[in-house]
Write a structure and sequence with these properties.
By secondary structure, the protein is mainly β. The chain contains no helices and 11 strands. The chain has strands at residues 7-15, 18-21, 26-28, 33-37, 43-47, 56-58, 63-65, 69-72, 76-83, 88-90, 96-98. The strands form 3 sheets. Strands 4, 5, 6, 7, 10 and 11 form a 6-stranded antiparallel beta sheet that branches. Strands 3-2-8 form a 3-stranded antiparallel beta sheet, with no helix packed on it. A two-stranded antiparallel ribbon has the order 1-9.
Length: 107
């Protein structure tokens, strides 16, 4: 279910490297959590550092296959947002993200 929410707080900081997925579709730190469909056809939250080519990113319109992942060593601004009453949100480009620290999925 998609609902509208209000951004309660915004923090801006810097990182010295970031992950560039699909040539700029997603730029985020290694710890950023993104909903993916993995190669075993399982939906799960995945840190950017663990995303592999062939995984699919969940967007508000379709699944987007990860084709490229590059670690870029340059300074980037990081924006952390706190969204009212929800922990998941679609980014400006439609990718579903999570704004809390996640517990490991039991295997």
């Amino acid at each position: 279910k998609i609902v509208s929410s209000t951004v309660k707080n915004v923090e801006i900081s810097n990182a010295i490297k970031y992950y560039n997925i699909n040539n700029g579709l997603v730029k985020c730190t290694s710890e950023h959590n993104i909903l993916i469909l993995d190669n075993k056809n399982i939906y799960r939250w995945c840190k950017a550092v663990d995303i592999k080519p062939g995984y699919k990113l969940f967007s508000n319109e379709t699944l987007i296959t990860v084709k490229t992942i590059a670690v870029i060593f340059e300074k980037i601004n990081i924006i952390k947002i706190d969204v009212e009453n929800v922990d998941n949100y679609f980014t400006f480009n439609g990718i579903l993200s999570h704004n809390l620290k996640l517990l490991p999925i039991p295997r």
